[in-house]
Each structure stands twice: as structure tokens, then as C-alpha cells.
Write a structure and sequence with these properties.
The complex is a heterotrimer of chains A (about 675), B (about 250) and C (about 230).
Chain A (H helix, E strand, L loop, with lengths): L23 H6 L12 E2 L13 H11 L5 H4 L3 E5 L3 H13 L2 E5 L17 E2 L11 H11 L6 H20 L14 E2 L9 E2 L5 H18 L3 E4 L2 E9 L2 E9 L5 E5 L2 E4 L20 H8 L4 E2 L4 E7 L17 H4 L1 E5 L16 E2 L1 H5 L9 H13 L11 E4 L1 H7 L1 H19 L8 E10 L2 E2 L12 E3 L17 H23 L10 H20 L5 H16 L5 H21 L11 H25 L23 H4 L1 E6 L8 E6 L14
Helix pairs in contact in A: 2-6, 4-7, 4-14, 5-6, 6-14, 12-13, 16-17, 16-18, 17-18
Chain B lengths: L2 E8 L6 E8 L8 H14 L22 E2 L2 E2 L20 E5 L8 E3 L2 E2 L2 H8 L21 H11 L6 H5 L6 H12 L8 H14 L10 H5 L7 H15 L8
Parallel strand pairs in B: 1-5
Antiparallel strand pairs in B: 1-2, 3-4, 3-5, 6-7
Helix pairs in contact in B: 2-6, 3-5, 5-6, 5-8, 6-8
Chain C lengths: L12 H7 L1 H26 L6 H13 L9 H31 L13 H25 L12 H8 L3 H28 L8 H28 L4
Helix pairs in contact in C: 1-2, 2-4, 2-7, 2-8, 5-7, 7-8
Classes of the chains: A alpha+beta (about 675), B alpha+beta (about 250), C mainly alpha (about 230).
Chain lengths: ~675, ~250, ~230
């Protein structure tokens, strides 16, 4: 079923036989339909999540699991499930589906499934264990997450996430994940931004690494047992949709360049977020949006693309050569104090600035939460003080994160125990010793709350196509709380998807897909034509130069603060940049070998389309909420001002053709349990 | 800074390769080593040449993708990953030799890119604790002494970059394998598979064509995560223990 | 590109130990320790040379009477010799096989060679070859007396002095003893690693012990030809 087929580029344009299938020429030229106004989006029928059961919120997940149809264990091996990505969500899902008896075919672009970018998560993972007896509960984690997401997440999903969080910790400990422990041998926890309980489990500053290795090891066991067919260094480049159902993918072997089709009964995208659209972000260099964007082009709605998270504690950039930004775990804010000089343009070294001339602005503005306010608030506060001219370091783009008090209080050894590896990393990058000189930090793009729209079952609008982890939009609303990404990835991968996908598979008995189906050929031709167009263009600009330019544009106009003027400017510039890309791009080498420039260029081509949708979404959402801050919509104190009457919905966009105005489908959000209030962390 | 780079160029797995010399200028000391190579690649592309292929991803020193031998040292002069090595550790006018990991178990794919999938197969043969999803008891059901938890963590820090193999004169994967064996074998959760794990992983390691350990310690010196040499002794102990106890391999 | 592997049925345990690199290293370590133990007792016996011919010859005679009356005259040595021979052979075979494997695992050298790299491995390999040749010479010289022109059966002290009175006898011996020192220096530490005795806490002590024993063995053995040359022993 999943044997690969060598395909050749036919050079003929495929027939556009469905509204979502685009023709090859428009996909390769990227030109906007003449006279089309991208911002004149249509409004389609509202979306309703039909899968979430009604009734008391505590019962919904139980009910759904009971109502879901099951596949007979003996029949499961007949079903093939494709999983794209091997991060926390994908790795956990692949291993679990294989354990259940399904035949899993899994892909990652890295040379090993162990390198997925979940590995870089530092701080921790939340779980409502209440081991501290500090008043935590599933209900409180649910409440905190809905509130932290600024009331733009679906209650049912978030409650399920909080319920499942407890099982995740059990699962990971059983796998041998070496969480931090106390002398009594029990698990240690710490508190994290945006909450007042200590519910974050951690493994020094490498929690993501340890959780990912746990999932990777479980996956490796299934690979060795022959239950998972693993394709490393293979990148998904398109989705195959047959008779309205997702039935496979087109993928390119990055070593040989061979483009092959893989067919299946269902496809799961666990390919992560799209933060790299900004060029400079904390994402891995090769993290990309191609899988989800191609799925979007094939009919999966893209929800809330403008909800991007800016992380407050990153190492500031050092120059134009910067290729990526490095995050310092948010857990640093537990013990570090953030400050800037009170006076503008104060260039004295930090040690020479006396206490009363320092402004610990987070503690001043938000006395209840202090340095532990949610990420969006901490980031914007940093931007504000820097905009006032009180920023520190090169270019005034930084604020201090000072551990002097923590070292005095806990002793250097305790600080080292807790944050040693982060301090070491900081020193390596900046050549400054954070035990003696305060760290300099500045916000950077870190996570994308938006993603493919999914229902309660994590199924997209294309039947048979599921999206899990950061690739979907479901649980974090407009802002994600710290240590919740790991929780969501593992919840989706270990517990939610393996339960819900059964229902879909049980309702769609296994049947073979015809390899010669026109839709298969069309998908392959689309991919090969596009690669050919990139390789044969021989222009005069490198892929990176376009990526940098796009990234700067987005950071300026669709970054920490957004305005109508700026967004319109970006929406004007992006199509012309895209046109320039297809005219001037230069990709050396051939398609029949390892060609990293080709990989990059192909991903950037998708960013150039996605960026436009992000800006449109940001433009259409005239309120501020969470990570989306519209300067036109703020309180007198400069906080984000939500407009619940108009925007209490998830915006799911339907693709209508490259450069064509998309269609907006609204999913109304109802809040039965957590009443929306103005978020207050003062 | 102005530098002379001598880089191993090889177009494919079965093609011959050679050291090729490039001159680069305008290098800032704040650049990372990979940013320096990015800089070179941009110039190569614009000049109509093929850029140098190298593996990299997170650029934060944690994914383990990057790795090259710089002036004869795996990951270069600092004890860190290549992506976290900064140009301030070099001087204007330096000549820098850049080569791929060398080991027959890590065949060169292209330029500085090698195939490290042997590591995945070692893990797949025993580097796990069998705990199918849903079968776990409460996380606090089995307390783990802090010392054991800390030892497990120190070994679990391995990023699988392969520097140990590259630095070893015998191309041995003992440090990599032992780090995973020790991580899982010191935990109570890992006890049921303690014997089969070490026997299977050592068996796979040998079958993949890695060399044996001669205790030169080059691996531990090169390890960016500081996995210490006694870890290998600990695995040898586990191996002897498993042998004496008549442990059986899971797969064989 | 698929990673799945399946390996055939497991071999017997002894077979898998012999086939595995760790198992072979264990054999090397144990055989090495047997030889090291022999060397230490050999040195103690040799140092009797400083107490004169009667003491030394008496000691040599005593060696043949160990175990009497259960063992017949000279049987003890014949019990020790096969053990030593087995140790030498196993040590040699495993060393050869592991070295071949090691060289095959790293066929291509780095263009940029660092001097300090592979120092220990090189000295172990060359040292091993030197010592093998020396053992053959040593047996022909002082046990079978084949190459010792002035030797007489039953007069070990005189034979020893005779051997160390030639320039080549001394050169071969001193070179070999330096090789012993280097070999033991890394070998003892390496055996501790291989047998799993080493740990972070013991590393320092083990290194000191290895270096110390190597130094004692080398100096102890070399002191004899030097004394013969200086005329302290004659």
C-alpha cells in the first residue's frame, strides 16, 4: 500500500477538477489573479464543531471516547496511517498507533526522528497533579489555559487537555524520562508564567529533549519491530485528496531527490508551527510550514494565522548575520528580575546603575504576578520600554534579566543547579557571564497558536486529515501559557488522536487507492513542476535573501504590535515580493541530489503565500487579544482590549487560489464555564 | 575577519572527495561557525557555485544535527556543538580545516553531511523502556532516589550528534551506547529490561561496524554534553552482569 | 531509507561474548591482568639478584619445588605455563581481531591530524608487537638458553649476568621494559574500565595506580641490567 512509485515530470498541466485543486501554472508563477483584491475576502458558512459532545464539560471526553467507533484489533494492521513529523505530537502518535496495531508510515525531514524541534523546549510541562497541595486541579489548569489564551480557545478542548495532562506525566515517568526529583525521590515542580500554582514538571533546562527522547525511544522500538515504516530525510510536499478524503502524500527523499507517493487510510500532520515565516525565530532553521500550507491549499481551513507568540526571554540579536534567535527558558523569570534604567539613554554598565535608578517595570506595573506575567504581556512591556528609549545593549533592543538577588538569596550553587545549562548557553553566545553581569533579553517569535482548523477529534476540514500539536490551532487560543506546548503535543499524540482516529477509520473501511488515480498524478505533477520551476529559474537572488526580507517585513508590520496601516502596507508588498521571488530566485544544483538550497526555496515559496494570509487575518481581527495586539484596540493602560461582541470566534480561512481572496468561516466560541473578563495580572 | 577555509567537498556517497580552499572576508566575531558557513554559501550561490552541504537545525546545541571536524577536532576547539561555536575563538587570517565525521558506520552523504542512522538502529534494538501508552502507574508510585535520577539525567543529555564516534581513533560508538544504557538501567522503571537492553544494544552497535573501545578518552573530550568516560565502564559492568546472570537478548 | 532492521536468531552466550567487542575486551582485560600478576611476581623474584647468586639460584630452585610433595618437582611451573600461554594467545588474538576491526571502522584519516590523538592506541599496538617479540627472545635467552651463548642449565644467576653483559641483550631488554611500562600504564587503567571497575570517583586512584605500577615495573626490571653494566651485580 505504501510502496513508493518513481514518478517523472510530465510537463503537462493537470486538470483543475475540484475547487481546491489549483492549476500548475498558477502554483508555480505565484501571480495574483489580475484585478483581484486579496483583502476583499468572502464570508462562508459558519463552522460548527460537531464532534464535541454536549453536557457537563467534565464528561465530554469520556462521552466522546465511548461514542467513538472502534476498529477490531485484528483489522487494525490492514489500515495504514501516515504521520508527518516526529516531534512530541508525531512521535507519540506514531508510537501509540503502532502499539494499537495500525501500520504507521512516518516521515521527518531530519536525519533522525530524535532531532525534531520539540527537543529544544527548555522549561517544562504542565500537569494538574496537585502534588504540591497548592490548590491545583484539572479545573484550575483548564481555567488558567482559557484565561491565558485570552478567551479565544475552545472550552471543550482545553478541558480535555487539562484532564489528559495528568496521564502524560505518568506515561513519561514510566518511559524513563528523568524528571527533576527531590531528595525523597518524588517529582519536583516549579511555577511558570501566568499561573499561581507550581505545576510544571521539568528536567533541568532540557525538558523538551527528555520528553522527546522518551517518545523517540518508544517510536524506535516500533520501528525496529517493523510496525512503523520510518522515512527520515523525507519531506512532505503535497497532500493527496481523493473523493474528498485525504489518502496520501507526495514526499521528496532529500538525499536522492526522488519524489514518491505514499498512500494511506488517513494522514496525520504533526509538522509543527510556522514561526519561521519570520526568518528570525526560535524555531529550528528547517522547521517549515509546507506540510500544513499544502494541506491548506488542498482544502484544509487555516485558523487564526495571526495568533503568533512572541517569547519575552530571548537573547538579543548581535548583527545582520544572525540566522536564528535563541530562547532562554521562561523559567528564568521565576528567579530573575527584569529591569531597565529609569533614565532614557543611560549607557552606564548595569553594575554602576544604583538600585533607585532602576525600573523593575513588570513588578511595578503588575504587582500580583510581577516577573511572571504571561508571555504576551511581558513581551509588549519590553517593547514599550525599549520604544521609550530605555532599552539596553546594542541598538537599545534589550532589557536586563538580573540574577544578583537570586544568587544572594539562594547561593550561586543553587542557581547553577537550576539554570546552569542556560547560563552556560548564554555565555557561549554573548561572551558575557550572567553570574556577574545581568543577562540581556529581548522578545522573539517563538510559537504559533494558529494552525490548521480541527474539530474536537483533531480532524481538519478534509476528512481523513488530522492535525496535532503545534500544527493545529486548537488549545491555546490567542496566547499559549508557558510549559503548555509540550503538554498539548503529548496529549494529542499519546491520548487524543489515538482515541479519535479510531472513529474515522471505523467509519471508512479499508480500501486500496488506485495508484493511477488522476488526483495522485496531479499532486505529483504539481510538486515536480514547482521544483523544476525553482531549479530552472537561474535568477540573481538567493533563497535566504528573500526569506530575510519577508521576515523583516512581517516582524515590523505583523509582529509584536500591528496597525491597519502597517498591515495594509505588508499586504501590498507581499504579492510583489512573491512575484519577484519567482522571477529572480536562484537555486544552484539539481533536483536529483541533496540540495539544501532547493529545500529552502521551496519552503520560502509557501511562506510567501502564508504571510499574506497572516496579515489578512491580523487586519480583519480589529481587536487585540493575546499575542495579537492591534494598536487601535487597547485600554487606557495600554493593555490588549478584546472586542468579544465582534470577535469571539476562531477565524478559519478557506483557500481559493494563490493570491485570491480567501473565504472566512467563523467558528463561534462559547464560554459556559470560564466567563470572559478583561485579563488582569496586576 | 578574513579566513582561509579548507573544506571537504564530495558530491555524493560514491564519489571521490577532496579538500577545497575558499577565502572568506567580512566575518564578524559574533557570528556562529554555521553563520560563517552561511556567509560563504551565499557567496558561492551568487558566484554560480554549489553551496557547501552541512547538517544543522536547531542551532541551539540541542538537536544534535550539526557536526563537523574543525582543525582535527570534532565540533572544533570549544567543548560545544558546532552551532554554538563562535568565530571569536578564531583569529583574523587563520586557516581552518573543515571535514565531515569520519567512520565507516557514518558514510558521507555529501560534503559535510554523513548518515548517522546507525545510531537510530542502536536505540531501536533496546534503548527504550517498554511502556505502551496508557499502561503507566501513577508517576509517584515508584520514588526514584535523587542520585539515580541525577545520574540518569546526566546520561540522558546525549544529543546523538556523533562527535564521540568522529573523535574516536577506532570509530567506536561506546560512549553513545553506554549513555543510553546507563540512563535507562539506573532507573527502577528500566530494571525489567536491564539485561536484554545492554546485550541487544552492544550487539547492534557491533553489527553496525563501529570499532571497539580502547579507552583513549577522545570521545569524552569531544562530547559537547560532557558524558564522562566512566559511563563506558558502567556499561561494561552492565554487560558483564547481564552475561553472568545469563541474560537473554530480546531480538537477537 | 527505512530504519527497520531484523537480525537473525541469537547465538549462544559464549559465542555472543566472543563476537562482541565488549566481550573480547573483557578477555583482553582478564588475560592482561593474569600476565600483569605474573610480571609482578616475576619482578619480586628477579630483585633477589641483588642478594647474590646463592639467593637467586635458591629462589629459582624453590620455584620448582612449590607444591611438593603433592606436586612433583617442576610441576608447578608446568601448571603456570599453560595458563600464561593461554593468556598470551588470547590476549594476542583478541588484540589482533579488535585492532583489525578498529582500523576498518575508521578507514579514512582526517586531513588535519592532531599529534596527541590516538597516542594510547598506537603505543598499545606497537608495544604489543614489541613485547610479543621480546617474550620469544626472552624464553630463548633465559629459559631454553638457545640464544644465550655462555649459558649453562641450572645456573640462572650466571646466565642472567651473561645475557646482560652483551650490548644487544641490554638494548633488547631495556627497550622491552620501556614498552612494558607504557603498555601497563594504559593497560591496567583500560582493564579497569573494561571490567567496569572504573567510576567517576575512582578514576584518579586508578590512573595513579596504573602509572605507579608501570613505573615500578619498568624501573624494577631495568635496574637489573643497569646494575650488571655498572658492575654492582656480577
Amino acid at each position: 500500500m505504501t510502496d513508493t512509485t518513481a514518478t517523472t515530470r510530465t510537463g503537462t498541466a493537470p486538470a483543475a477538477d475540484s475547487p481546491t485543486a489549483d492549476s500548475a501554472d498558477s502554483s508555480t508563477s505565484g501571480e495574483r489573479a489580475p484585478g483581484g483584491d486579496y483583502t476583499a475576502y468572502g464570508v462562508g458558512v459558519p463552522l460548527v464543531d460537531t464532534k464535541a459532545p454536549k453536557g457537563p464539560i467534565e464528561e465530554r471526553w469520556k462521552t466522546r471516547r465511548f461514542e467513538a467507533k472502534l476498529v477490531n484489533p485484528a483489522n487494525r494492521r490492514k489500515y495504514t496511517v501516515i504521520v508527518v513529523g516526529t516531534g512530541l505530537a508525531g512521535g507519540a502518535a506514531g508510537a501509540t498507533l503502532a502499539e494499537q496495531g495500525y501500520h504507521v508510515v512516518q516521515f521527518c525531514y531530519q536525519d533522525s526522528p530524535r532531532r525534531a524541534h520539540s527537543i529544544a523546549a527548555q522549561g517544562g510541562i504542565n500537569a494538574a497533579k496537585n502534588y504540591r497541595n497548592d490548590g491545583d486541579s484539572v479545573r484550575r489548569l483548564f481555567y488558567d489555559t482559557v484565561k491565558g489564551g485570552d478567551f479565544r480557545a475552545r472550552e471543550s478542548n482545553v478541558h480535555r487537555l487539562a484532564e489528559v495532562s495528568v496521564e502524560i506525566i505518568d506515561q513519561c515517568v514510566a518511559q524513563g524520562v528523568p524528571f527533576a526529583r527531590e531528595y525523597g525521590g518524588l517529582l519536583d515542580t516549579r511555577s511558570f508564567g501566568g499561573v499561581q500554582v507550581s505545576r510544571t514538571f521539568y528536567a533541568r533546562g532540557q525538558t523538551g529533549q527528555q520528553l522527546l527522547l522518551g517518545a523517540y525511544q518508544a517510536l524506535s522500538k516500533e520501528i525496529a519491530a517493523g510496525h512503523v515504516e520510518m522515512h527520515p530525510r523525507t519531506e512532505m510536499l503535497d497532500l493527496i485528496v481523493i473523493d474528498g478524503r485525504a489518502r496520501g502524500i507526495v514526499a521528496r527523499d532529500l538525499i536522492t531527490g526522488k519524489v514518491s507517493t505514499y498512500l494511506a487510510d488517513a494522514v496525520v500532520l504533526a509538522s509543527g508551527g510556522y514561526g519561521n515565516v519570520f526568518y528570525l525565530s526560535t524555531n529550528a532553521k528547517n522547521s517549515n510550514a509546507t506540510a500544513i500550507w499544502r494541506a491548506h491549499r488542498r482544502g484544509a481551513y487555516f485558523a487564526n494565522p495571526c495568533f503568533t507568540q512572541i517569547h519575552p526571554t530571548c537573547i538579543p540579536r548581535s548583527g545582520d548575520h544572525q540566522s536564528k534567535l535563541t530562547l532562554m527558558s521562561e523559567s528564568l523569570r521565576n528567579d530573575g528580575r527584569i529591569w531597565v534604567p529609569k533614565a532614557k539613554g543611560d549607557t552606564r554598565p548595569p553594575a554602576q546603575i544604583p538600585e533607585d535608578e532602576r525600573d523593575y517595570y513588570l513588578e511595578r506595573i503588575y504587582p500580583a504576578f510581577g516577573n511572571l506575567v504571561p508571555r504576551d504581556i511581558a513581551s509588549r512591556a519590553a517593547k514599550n520600554v525599549c520604544d521609550e528609549g530605555r532599552g539596553v545593549g546594542p541598538g537599545g533592543q534589550g532589557v536586563y534579566l538580573d540574577f544578583a538577588d537570586a544568587i544572594a538569596r539562594m547561593g550561586r550553587k543553587a542557581v547553577e543547579e537550576k539554570y546552569g545549562n542556560l547560563f552556560e548557553m548564554y555565555e557561549r553566545i554573548t561572551a558575557e557571564n550572567p553570574y556577574e553581569v545581568p543577562m540581556r533579553i529581548y522578545p522573539a517569535i517563538h510559537y504559533t497558536m494558529g494552525g490548521l482548523w480541527v474539530d474536537y477529534d483533531l480532524q481538519t476540514t478534509v476528512p481523513g486529515l488530522f492535525a496535532i500539536g503545534e500544527a493545529n490551532f486548537s488549545d491555546h487560543g490567542a496566547n499559549r501559557l508557558g510549559a503548555s506546548a509540550l503538554m498539548q503535543g503529548l496529549a494529542d499524540g499519546y491520548f487524543v488522536l489515538p482515541a479519535t482516529i479510531n472513529d474515522y477509520l471505523a467509519r471508512h473501511p479499508h480500501d486500496e487507492v488506485d495508484r493511477d488515480h488522476p488526483a495522485v498524478h496531479e499532486a505529483v505533477t504539481t510538486v515536480t513542476d514547482r521544483l523544476y520551476a525553482l531549479l530552472s529559474n537561474n535568477g540573481d537572488r538567493t533563497p535566504d535573501s528573500f526569506h530575510r526580507e519577508l521576515g523583516e517585513l512581517l516582524w515590523d508590520e505583523c509582529g509584536m504590535a500591528r496597525t491597519e496601516t502597517g498591515l495594509r502596507k505588508a499586504l501590498e508588498r507581499i504579492p510583489s515580493l512573491r512575484e519577484e521571488f519567482w522571477r529572480r530566485i536562484k537555486v544552484p544544483g539539481s533536483g536529483e541530489e541533496l540540495n539544501q538550497s532547493l529545500e529552502k526555496a521551496n519552503r520560502i515559496a509557501d511562506y510567501l503565500e502564508l504571510a499574506e494570509l497572516m496579515c489578512l487575518d491580523a487586519l480583519h481581527r480589529k481587536e487585540s487579544c493575546g499575542g495579537h495586539f492591534r494598536e487601535e484596540s487597547q485600554t487606557e493602560g495600554g493593555e490588549a482590549k478584546r472586542l468579544d461582541e465582534s470577535y469571539a470566534y476562531a477565524a478559519a480561512w478557506e483557500f481559493t487560489g494563490p493570491g485570491n481572496a480567501p473565504v472566512l468561516h467563523r467558528e463561534a466560541l462559547e464560554f459556559e464555564y470560564v466567563h470572559p473578563t478583561q485579563r488582569s495580572y496586576a | 575577519m578574513r579566513l582561509t577555509l579548507r573544506i571537504w567537498r564530495q558530491t555524493g556517497p560514491d564519489e571521490p572527495g577532496a579538500m577545497t580552499t575558499y577565502e572568506v572576508d567580512g566575518i564578524s566575531e559574533d557570528m556562529s561557525f554555521l553563520e560563517m558557513l552561511d556567509h560563504l554559501n551565499e557567496e558561492l550561490i551568487l558566484g554560480g557555485d554549489e553551496p557547501v552541504a552541512f547538517d544543522h537545525d536547531c542551532r541551539e546545541g540541542i538537536c544534535g544535527a550539526c557536526g563537523m571536524v574543525i582543525n582535527g577536532q570534532a565540533h572544533g576547539p570549544e567543548r560545544t556543538t558546532t552551532c554554538q561555536l563562535h568565530m571569536r575563538h578564531f583569529n583574523d587570517g587563520d586557516t581552518i580545516d573543515i571535514e565531515p565525521w569520519r567512520a565507516s558506520a557514518f558514510p558521507v552523504v555529501k560534503d559535510l553531511v554523513v548518515d548517522r542512522s546507525a545510531f537510530d538502529r542502536i536505540i531501536g534494538s533496546g534503548g527504550f523502556i517498554s511502556a505502551p501508552t496508557g499502561s503507566a502507574p501513577d508517576a509517584h508510585a515508584t520514588p526514584v532516589p535523587k542520585a539515580a535520577a541525577d545520574l540518569a539525567f546526566e546520561n540522558a543529555e546525549c544529543i546523538g550528534c556523533g562527535a564521540c564516534v568522529a573523535a574516536c581513533p577506532n570509530g567506536s560508538a561506546m560512549l553513545f551506547t553506554s549513555a543510553k544504557v546507563v540512563h535507562l538501567n539506573v532507573l527502577p522503571q528500566g530494571a525489567p529490561e536491564r539485561e536484554s537492553r545492554v546485550l541487544d544494544m552492544v550487539g547492534t552497535m557491533d553489527a553496525e561496524g563501529f570499532g571497539g573501545c580502547t579507552n583513549t578518552g577522545e570521545c569524552a573530550t569531544a562530547c559537547p554534553k560532557g558524558i564522562p568516560l566512566p559511563t563506558i565502564a558502567a556499561m561494561n559492568r552492565e554487560y558483564l552482569r547481564a552475561t553472568v546472570k545469563g541474560g537473554k537478548r530480546r531480538t537477537g | 531509507m527505512a530504519l527497520a532492521t531484523r537480525t537473525p536468531r541469537p547465538p549462544s552466550l559464549i559465542g555472543s561474548v566472543w563476537r562482541s567487542t565488549v566481550g573480547k575486551k573483557t578477555i583482553m582485560a582478564v588475560s592482561g591482568l593474569i600476565m600483569l600478576g605474573y610480571l609482578v611476581s616475576h619482578l619480586i623474584g628477579n630483585l633477589k639478584v641483588f642478594f647474590g647468586a646463592d639467593d637467586f639460584n635458591g629462589y629459582a630452585h624453590w620455584l620448582r619445588t612449590i607444591g611438593e610433595p603433592i606436586l612433583h618437582h617442576g610441576w608447578f611451573l608446568w601448571l603456570v605455563r599453560p595458563v600464561l600461554l593461554a593468556a598470551v594467545i588470547l590476549h594476542g588474538i583478541t588484540a589482533y581481531q579488535l585492532s583489525r576491526r578498529d582500523l576498518a571502522a575508521r578507514p579514512q584519516k582526517y586531513a588535519h591530524q592532531r599529534k596527541e590523538q590516538s597516542y594510547a592506541t598506537r603505543t598499545m599496538r606497537w608495544g604489543g608487537i614489541i613485547l610479543t617479540l621480546f617474550i620469544i627472545w626472552h624464553i630463548l635467552d633465559l629459559t631454553t638458553l638457545t640464544v644465550n651463548e655462555r649459558a649453562e642449565e641450572g645456573h640462572p644467576y650466571e646466565n642472567l649476568v651473561a645475557s646482560f653483559s652483551t650490548w644487544y641483550g641490554n638494548t633488547i631488554y631495556i627497550t622491552a621494559m620501556l614498552a612494558v611500562g607504557l603498555h601497563v600504564r594504559h593497560g591496567l587503567w583500560s582493564a579497569a574500565q573494561t571490567l567496569g571497575v572504573a567510576s567517576a570517583r575512582r578514576t584518579r586512584a586508578l590512573k595513579i595506580a596504573s602509572n605507579g605500577l608501570a613505573l615500578v615495573l619498568t624501573c624494577g626490571f631495568i635496574s637489573i641490567p643497569v646494575s650488571v653494566m655498572l658492575g654492582l651485580v656480577d
